[in-house]
Design a protein that fits this description.
Length: 186
């Protein structure tokens, strides 16, 4: 990679991340204007949008009651029917309950290449049907009291109606690897 490519990438990361000013969990990422980046985003989105994802057995279930709660993966999430996805189930959800799905991981320049994806699947009759799909590109820089720096990126999904749901998520770095992910019920 040339110096020009590195500078271009850093500037693009700054533009995509918005200097961390925007809430990364409230919008679906738009085109970056770079075909290579847009292609990588499309690849990530396709892997989690498989029609069979709703039939995958959840790796964990949130406790009933609607209290804030989080569950995290251990890098081993994957299923032949839903590649690289971390699947959580939450039963008895009230309309309007929301979830943050994403990761906190090591940082790169401006956190611009970190992404998070969440799909929300509602149980309808005996099957789960996808009702929401949010992808976020670009995270915010978080500094913890110990002085460590992390990129935090998450996608937020909200239950449109009462019912039983699955939250299917993945997170990672564009042109890199998947990272640990978590689902937090707000």
């Amino acid at each position: 990679m040339s110096t020009t490519d590195c500078v271009r990438g850093a500037l693009l990361a700054l533009l995509v991340a918005g200097c961390g000013a925007a809430d990364p969990g409230t919008s679906d990422s738009a085109s970056s204007g770079d075909p290579q980046i847009d292609g990588e985003v499309a690849r990530v989105k396709q892997s989690l949008g498989e029609a069979t994802c709703g039939s995958v057995k959840p790796y964990a279930t949130l406790s009933p009651g609607g209290a804030p709660q989080g569950i995290g993966s251990d890098y081993t999430y994957d299923d032949p029917l839903c590649r690289n996805a971390f699947v959580i189930e939450d039963d008895g959800v009230k309309a309007g309950e929301s979830y943050r799905a994403g990761s906190v991981s090591g940082w790169d320049l401006f956190c611009g290449f970190h992404w998070s994806r969440a799909t929300l699947w509602q149980k309808q009759a005996s099957a789960f049907v996808q009702v929401q799909d949010v992808t976020t590109l670009g995270g915010t820089l978080a500094i913890v009291p110990t002085g460590q720096w992390f990129c935090q990126t998450y996608a937020r999904v909200t239950a449109p109606a009462a019912g039983d749901y699955k939250i299917i998520t993945a997170a990672g770095v564009l042109f890199g690897s998947y990272t640990r992910t978590s689902v937090i019920r707000d």
